[in-house]
Automatic annotation (TrEMBL):
Family listed: Belongs to the cytochrome c oxidase subunit 2 family.
Catalytic activity: 4 Fe(II)-[cytochrome c] + O2 + 8 H(+)(in) = 4 Fe(III)-[cytochrome c] + 2 H2O + 4 H(+)(out)
Source species: Glossina austeni
Protein keywords: Cell membrane, Magnesium, Membrane
Cofactor(s) needed by this chain: Cu cation
GO MF annotations, alphabetized: copper ion binding; cytochrome-c oxidase activity
CDD domains to which the protein is assigned, alphabetical: CuRO_UO_II
GO cellular component term, pick one: plasma membrane
Pfam family membership, one: COX2
Domain Cytochrome oxidase subunit II copper A binding positions: 30-143
Gene3D superfamilies to which the protein is assigned, alphabetical: Cupredoxins - blue copper proteins (2.60.40.420)
Protein name: cytochrome-c oxidase
Membrane topology category: Multi-pass membrane protein
Amino acid sequence: MTSIFVIKYPTITWNSTHFLDPKKEIKSLYSPINIQVISLDWKWLFIYPDYNIATINEIAFPQNVPIKFNITSNSVMNSFFIPQLGGQIYAMAGMNSILNLISNTTGKYKGISANFSGPGFSEMKFIAISLTDKNTFDAWIKNIQKSSKRIDNMRDYQNISTPSINHPIEYFSQD
């Protein structure tokens, strides 16, 4: 009986680990929404490359649509985490981490950094909004595309990446 126990549980662990791999794409009728995540000192920059927009400390997506996060850091290691959706993964400078999530219900969820990263760490929070449908998501996108704020060059990026604590939500557009 001992030999069965030893063989059985490593197999379960192996299978569960690969089944729950955060890089594994979520099968859906919908194409995933791509969001690039950059951990800054002490705020989050979210870039939606398919929509030519960016936000600080707020993301949105339609419910039941997969989200593919490409995550990195501008400086120190952080940890990207939306507890109600699951999946905590590290953001590291010079590295790219991938996390696939999906929200099956609408609502506003708290996102955090789950890794100590300096004096502003405890306030490094963001809002993740799961919207009812694609039309509501498109309206959110169109609202951000009206923003006059831009990130057009390295100087703009360096300005927003300046360390700040309790940074407000901001919207940027290239349209």
